[in-house]
Amino acid sequence: MKQQRVHTTISLDQNSLQQSLRQAGVVLITCNDVGKITSAPVRGSDWTADFFCGSAMFRRALMRCVEQWRECTNPEAVEPIPGIWLVPTVLFSRRRRIEALSVAVITTERLLESEHFLAMCHSSNNDATLARTMMLELPP
Questions:
Q1: Three-state SS annotation for 27-60
Q2: Separation between Cα atoms, residue 87 and residue 13, nearest integer Å
Q3: Which residues 6+ apart lie within 8 Å of 11 measured at CB?
Q4: What is the C-alpha separation between 55 and 126, in angstroms, rounded?
Q5: H-type helices in the chain, by residue range?
Q6: Tell me: the pLDDT tens digits for 10-48?
Q7: Each residue of 108-129: pLDDT tens digit?
Q8: Which of 42, 87, 103, 106 has the smallest count of CB within 10 Å of its CB?
Q9: Which of 14, 31, 39 shows the shortest CA–CA distance to 99?
């Protein structure tokens, strides 16, 4: 019961933070200690989150980053794919570290210039031209 209450509190806080960051063009996801995405915006409600979470290339990059971050007490931002920055925050419950990370996904125009962009479009079933146009419309 106690664990469910902690998870619910984290989920509520994450949802409001997700919405605030999304207005700034940042996608917020939560993953477990092996990099599996455990919380993201509802599929179909946010095309940018669908773009990242639907891409096998992105999910593999996230898993590699989480492997490195697991060994750090204060993990740092990293650019695993050109133009995609991952900014981790270790999640705590009552000053105790839990086996999860909240990760802000920040994109730069460098992504649109890399060959990784087309590969991610393909793996997430997105039209590259439309995705490029929509990425350019994101807030800076």
A1: EEEEEECCCCEEECCCCCCCHHHHHHHCCHHHHH
A2: 17
A3: 39
A4: 10
A5: 2-23, 47-53, 56-69, 110-113, 115-123, 128-136
A6: 454 556 766 667 667 788 888 988 899 987 666 766 788
A7: 999 999 999 999 998 888 899 9
A8: 42
A9: 31
CA 9 to chain centre: 20
What is the amino acid identity at position 84?
I
Cα(54)–Cα(31) distance, integer angstroms: 14
Order of strands across the sheet that contains 27-32? 37-39, 27-32, 96-107, 84-93, 78-81
Per DSSP, what are the bridge partners of residue 9? Answer: none
Note whether 63 and 70 are within 8 A (CB). Answer: no
Q: Which residue matches tokens 């999304």?
A: 22
Distance of CA 59 to the CA centre of its chain: 9
Tokens standing for 116?
């990784």
